[in-house]
Amino acid sequence: MPKEKKRLITVLLLLAASSAWAEKAPLEYDAFDGQVIGARAIGLGEAFTGLSADASAPYWNSAGLALMGTNSFTVCSYLQRESNAKWEEVIKSDPLRGGKLAFMSFASPNGALSIRPLSKIATDTYTNENGVEQWVNKKVNINELMLTTAKMYRENVFTGVSLNYLNGNLSIAQRTKDASNDVSKINVDTSNGWSLDLGIVFVPSPYLSFGISAINACGYMYWSDYDKSRLPLTLNTGVAMSLPQKVTFVYDIKKIYYADHDDLTTKHVGVEQYLFDLFIFRAGMSGENWNDPDKVTYTFGMGFTDKGYRLDLAMKRNKIRDSVVPEQMNSIATYVVSLSLPFGSN
User: Fold this and answer.
1) Model's pTM, two decimal places?
2) How far is C-alpha 12 from the chain's CA centre?
3) Could you tell me the mean pLDDT of each successive run of 10 residues in the chain, 346 residues long?
4) Are 320 and 83 in contact (CB under 8 A)?
5) Among 156, 175, 173, 150, which Cα is nearest to 58's?
6) Quick one: which of 65, 44, 3, 33 has its CA closest to 286?
7) Which CATH number fits domain 25-342: 1.10.3720.10, 3.50.50.60, 2.40.10.120, 2.40.160.60?
8) Which long-range contacts (CB under 8 A, 24 or more apart) does 286-291 make?
C-alpha cells in the first residue's frame, strides 16, 4: 500500500477515535429548555399550540404567525417568585436561575426575529473526603436567536419554520487540595449551534383550531473542547375551541425527548373569557400526573387588549420538586408579565 494511503487512513482513524472519545459537555439535562414564555399562554395552563396567533408563536408554534392580524413587538419577563423556601431552593430548577427576561420578538404575519435566553446557571460545589478538599465552580450561559417564517399552505392550513442560532459558553474552575498538593484548573469553552422548529395549524372553522409543533426537530450544539450536544426534541399537539360567548378552551399534550434523561410528558388545559372585548380572565393547570397534587401546576391570568396593544399578567403556583427536605414540599408563586405593541403596517 502506498505511503500516502497509509497516512490518510491513519489520519482518518485518529479523527474517528478522537470524536468517539470526546467527553460530553457537563450540562444539566434541561440546559436548552429555557423558561416557558408568554403570560397569556402561562395563564392558560401553558396550553397554546393550537392558539398561538401572536408574537409568541416562534416559541409555541411557528405557523401561528400567519394568523396574526398585525405586526407586533412583544417582551416577556418573570417579575417575581414568592415562597417560604430558601431562594436557592426556589430557583434551582430554573434554567435562568432567577433571571427576568425570558423572550423578546419582532413579529409579523410573514415572519419574526426573536431572542431567547436558554441557560444562565452558576453553581458552586465543595466536598471534603478523607482530607481531600475539592471545590468546583461552573457557569453556563446559552442564548438563542430565532428567525421564523410562516405562510398559508392551503385553505385553512398554515405552516411555519424557525431556523435558530445558538451561542454559549461554559467555564469550570476547580481546586483540589490535600496535605501535599494544591492544584487549580480553569477551563473556558465556547460553542455555537443550530436548530430547526416546524409547526402546522389547521383551522376547520372560526371556532376550532388544531396545532402541531416540533421544537428542535433537529439541532446540535458544537463545543470546542467537548463532544457536540444534541438538543432535546419537543413535540406539542394542541386544540383550541372558541364559543360565541367569547370563551375559549385549550388543551395540549407535550412530550420532551432528552438525550441523557428520561422523556417527560405533560398535559395542559386552560380556559379564557373575554369581557367587553377589552378584559380577559384565564385559568389553567398542567402537570405529569393530575392525580398527584405535588406534580400539578395551577395558573391564573388576566389581560387587557385594545387596538393591537396587549398587556398580560399571569401567576403560576407549583410545588418545589426534588427538595432537599422532601417532606417540606414548599409551594412557589411565580408572576409573569408580557407586553405587546403594534408597529408599522402589514
Assistant:
1) 0.88
2) 38
3) 57 50 82 93 97 93 93 94 81 83 95 95 85 88 97 94 96 86 87 97 95 96 92 97 92 94 95 92 94 90 92 92 56 94 81
4) yes
5) 150
6) 44
7) 2.40.160.60
8) 286/45, 286/46, 286/47, 288/264
